[in-house]
Structures are given as structure tokens and as C-alpha cells.
Specification:
Elements (H helix, E strand, L loop, with lengths): L4 E12 L2 E4 L6 E7 L28 E4 L2 E3 L2 E7 L10 E7 L8 E5 L5 H4 L5 E4 L16 E2 L3 E4 L2 E4 L8 E3 L6 E3 L2 E7 L1 H6 L6 E3 L9 E3 L4 E5 L1 H7 L3 E5 H6 L3 E3 L6 E7 L5 E4 L2 E4 L5 H6 L2 H10 L21 H8 L3 H10 L9
Antiparallel strand pairs: 1-2, 1-3, 1-8, 2-9, 3-4, 4-5, 6-7, 7-8, 10-21, 11-12, 13-14, 15-21, 16-17, 16-20, 18-19, 22-23
């Protein structure tokens, strides 16, 4: 991962109740540098990023800020836009708080990533209304999530999961073999979230097919397996198992919380198994967890896509693409050699009705 740096002109402002007050013509100018090089050694070895985190405890642990060349702790107050009727309406503004060297009180500074320094200097004096208050904490949605960067097979070729949109047609291993994305969403968890709750961390499943790469998913994300022995053991030839069970037996690992993670969710009209990176993984399954785990904005988006879905009632009736193994069944199957389990994972990527 490369070191990334952004430099801005910063202006001293007051910020209260969703608006700003400042005089750009007379305000102190600050040279603001955000960098992912947390330890200043010039190497991308410490998991830094340029995502700005809203944390009640204050300092963003993943990003370093230098104000006039001095590294300071900082706290993001808002990432908003100028309201209609203001100078540069719709322009992004970031307001953060630092304590400058020699000061006992904090200073609030605004930056405009989209404007030049000359444009910033033309913003009028006094109050500027903003369009939004600070967003809520990132949604904790740890059920069926792909880590950003996962490649999904579509009619247009492999597409990174974070680039999927409603209308994309994806290859599936269930149903007709093709399914149209009805909704795609994302949620970002900071390093602080991942440190605090180990169940939210990414599971990296080790490559089972040469050249296809590892698969990175959330812990509870279910992976398909297929093997003749399954029919003998549990009465089904195709089943799902949670990713973290595979990591528990050495077929993957839990990634340490070195940086933030963007989790992506893909929803079809029905529950599907999708091929990717040599594995078969499930799409988003609508059930009680949709109400329990999504934030209100994500819930509203889903209700627009599926008008019959309401919080607490009326969930669409989805049937899982395959049955899910229980822990006892999985332990029995996992006692076999790992090469058999690897074969079962690879066979899980074969479409229904085809020979593995």
C-alpha cells in the first residue's frame, strides 16, 4: 500500500449548530497536510489511510494531520456541504478541531477539498449554512459482507464489488445462472471498531485454486461446499458454512485490525450462491438480521427497493440457496483430510445440475 498525502489551505472558523462563521479575508491561513504515514518513516508499513473517522474519543487513529508542519491530534466535527444560496453551493467542507502549539484552547479549522486557495478566499464573511450534521457511527452490518476489492463475475466481466450497482447482471450458481442486482450497499468500519469487536474483522480464506487469489469476507458470510460425502453425512450434497469456521481449521485467518475496512453487500430478488476467487459465496439474505443489523439509512434504501418490507414485519420471504451446516455437522466433515475439504470448496463453484 502506497503512502498517500493531501495538502490543503485551512481557515480558522467557528462551528455551531450546523453552520460556520468566519472571515476568509482576515482569517489565519494554515497549511494542512493529511497523510497515511503514521510514524513518519516514509514507509507504508503502519496501516494508515486517508479516510476521516468520526470517533467520540477524539483522535482518528488511522490518519495523521500536520498543521503548518507540526503533527497534531485532531477530531473531525463535520464533513458537510454548503447549502443552497451560499457561496459554492454543494461544495464539500471538512471542519476539524486541533490544539495548536502554545495554545490552551482548541482551534477549529475548515478545508475545502474541491476548491482552489483563490476560490476559498472569495467566500463571503459571516455565517455559512451547511446541509448536514455529522453522520452517525458507521453501520455495524456483520452478516453477509464482501470486503472491498472482491471481484464479482458479471456479464461485463469481473467487477470489483464496491463498483456494483443496481442493474448489473451477475453470474450465479443457483437459479437460472444469472441474476440482476436489485441493491448494492456499503458500510465502513474503522480500525477502532475492529479493535473493539473482533467479530467484525475480515476473514481471509486462503486460495483454493491457483491464480484466483484469497477471498476476503465478514466472519458470518457463508461459503458453499459440495461433495458426495455430504450426502452421506447430512443428506445434502451442497451446503453453506460460515467463513470463520473455515478459518478456525486453518483454511483461512482473521486479519489483524491494521486499517479500516469497507464491507459491501449485494442483494438479488432471491438468495444466490455467487462464484468468486475460486469460491462460491452467498448474496445478501433478507431476514431478521436486516432489521437488527442495518442502520436506518440502509433500512430506508431496502424499503424503497422492496416496498413490502417494513421494520419488524412484512419481510420478503427468502429461501436460502442451500441449507446451512450446523457446527456438529461441520466438525464431522472437517475431520476428513483438508484436500477433501478443498475439493468441496472448489466444487461449490459449479452451477446446480452440472458435474463437479
Amino acid at each position: 500500500m502506497a503512502i498517500t498525502t493531501r495538502i490543503f489551505l485551512g481557515l480558522k472558523v467557528s462551528y455551531n449548530n450546523g453552520d460556520t462563521n468566519y472571515n476568509p479575508a482576515s482569517s489565519t491561513d494554515f497549511d494542512i497536510q493529511f497523510t497515511s504515514d503514521l510514524d513518519g518513516n516514509g514507509l507504508a508499513d503502519d496501516g494508515g489511510d486517508l479516510f476521516l473517522d468520526f470517533l467520540a474519543s477524539g483522535n482518528d487513529p488511522d490518519t495523521k494531520v500536520l498543521v503548518n508542519g507540526v503533527s497534531l491530534d485532531f477530531r473531525i466535527l463535520t464533513i458537510s456541504t454548503h447549502a443552497a444560496g451560499e457561496d459554492f453551493p454543494g461544495t464539500d467542507v471538512i471542519i476539524f478541531e486541533v490544539t495548536l502549539p502554545g495554545d490552551t484552547k482548541s482551534t477549529r479549522i475548515s478545508i475545502y477539498p474541491e476548491l482552489t486557495n483563490a476560490e476559498v478566499a472569495t467566500i463571503g464573511n459571516g455565517r455559512t449554512d451547511l446541509t448536514s450534521a455529522p453522520p452517525p457511527s458507521p453501520p455495524v452490518y456483520d452478516g453477509v459482507c464482501f470486503a472491498a476489492g472482491t471481484l464479482i463475475e458479471t456479464d461485463a466481466g469481473a467487477v470489483a464489488v464496491e463498483d456494483l450497482r443496481a442493474g448489473h447482471v451477475c453470474r450465479t450458481l443457483t437459479g437460472t445462472g444469472r441474476a440482476t442486482v436489485r441493491w448494492a450497499g456499503q458500510s465502513r468500519l474503522t480500525r477502532a471498531h475492529l479493535r473493539a469487536d473482533t467479530s467484525l474483522r475480515v476473514i481471509r480464506l486462503f486460495e483454493v485454486e491457483d491464480g484466483r487469489g484469497d477471498l476476503r469476507v465478514s466472519a458470518q458470510h457463508r461459503i458453499a461446499i459440495r461433495h458426495p460425502m455430504l450426502e452421506l453425512l447430512v443428506g445434502h450434497s451442497e451446503m453453506f458454512v460460515p467463513a470463520f469456521w473455515l478459518a478456525d481449521i486453518g483454511m483461512g485467518r482473521v486479519e489483524p485490525p491494521e486499517t479500516s475496512v469497507i464491507y459491501c453487500h449485494v442483494l438479488f430478488d432471491r438468495h444466490e450462491a455467487m462464484p468468486m476467487h475460486g469460491f462460491a459465496a452467498e448474496s445478501l439474505f433478507l431476514g431478521a438480521e436486516v432489521n437488527n443489523r442495518t442502520d436506518p439509512l440502509m433500512q430506508q434504501e431496502l424499503e424503497i427497493v422492496f416496498p413490502d418490507m417494513r421494520v419488524g414485519a412484512g419481510l420478503p420471504k427468502m429461501k436460502t440457496a442451500y441449507p446451512t451446516m450446523n457446527r456438529v455437522e461441520f466438525r464431522g466433515f472437517a475431520r476428513m483430510r483438508h484436500d477433501i475439504l478443498r475439493d468441496a470448496l472448489r466444487a461449490g463453484t459449479v452451477a446446480e445440475g452440472a458435474e463437479a
